[in-house]
Amino acid sequence: MHDVxxxxxxxxxxxxxxxxxxxxxxxxxxxxYGTAAALVLGPLFFPTFSPVAGTLAAFATFGIGxxxxxxxxxxxxxxxxxxxxxxxxxxxxxxxxxATVAVGCVPTYDRIGTxxxxxxxxxxxxxxxGLGGEWGGAVLLTAEHAPAGRRGLWSSFPQIGxxxxxxxxxxxxxxxxxxxxxxxxxxxxxxxxxxAAGVLAAxxxxxxxxxxxxxxxxxxxxxxxxxxxxxxxxxxxxxxLTAGALAVGYAVFYAVTTWSLAYATEHxxxxxxxxxxxxxxxxxxxxxxxxLAAHLSDRYGRRPLCLAGCAGAVLWMFPMVALLSTGExxxxxxxxxxxxxxxxxxxxxxxxYLPELYEPRVRCTGAAVGYNLxxxxxxxxxxxxxxxxxxxxxxxxxGVGAYLTAIALLSLGCFAxxxxxxxxxxxxxxxxxx
Length: 434
Prior knowledge:
79% helix; single chain; 434 residues; mainly alpha
């Protein structure tokens, strides 16, 4: 058996902070692309398309990142289950950071023709590959160090990272959008957040350099030889249920942070600066509520919080699109905020919930694959489908509300079929597939 290292209580804060910083940086990279796709990538990389078709094409390159994420979870999950959680954190951050900086250097269509969108596609794929490994490594390293009674709370720190990454990415774009002319923003301003990713990645690597390996991983005597094969053979039902359960979170989040930005600026005439400010304010509130929701899961269980958040999404999607369609900043903010509160009620919890569902020898692969397949189901197509539906929905895009409600109902059914895992001594596996 491996020598098991113990982590003193003060070290949990450092560990959680390093995990939070890493997820913030990687999601910064991912979100910078999504926002740029909504605002500027269409005319720069697909100029021969109509404005709507160009936005759809830009969102298609955005969706490729989601397709790559399950592949990244298989690749980095294999490393995490065979070699440890810590190497995953370093490798995934390097890959995502390098790909993001490169996006900021790609010449536009008028310079190199069709090679421009092709390069964009490749780099977006690499971004997704790295992010597919990041979540599993960061969450597991925190969850497997945390005491059982506070695992939900400590595991929520990496889940604050996406909110912070979103604010950093969109805050940078908001400042650039407000201070530069349209011509300057299109010429070079949109590239600055991508270049900044290099500095952030270097800072993240420095923070993660001192992390120790998960004690739970070090206790495993018999590591899975091919973790993905074991997950497919022994946990396929659990993977499908978790993917279906998480689909609504991705659909809601990218509907309000990516599609709504394009919809409001292109169809409602809302200024880019106002819409970014509305979204960012709602995301800040969401991030601040994350520890509270996670703490409640330690007291009342993971599944009840997930069911409550999912039910909230079912009830709020039609009111959300109605509020968005008003074009009034305060009402749009309230619509987005309600959706994100439903979202975080679920997603603050899953950082503890998903690892508890899988046995330790395949936990990194199983949790990450389920999590990122949910991204494909709910996140990859949502901006594309919502943009298409909004073209034929009149002033209020009710079709978008119906689409999001249908996904929420699917996820609610999947959550209902998953077991409760709290409290689970030593994170013993829940055999939900048998």
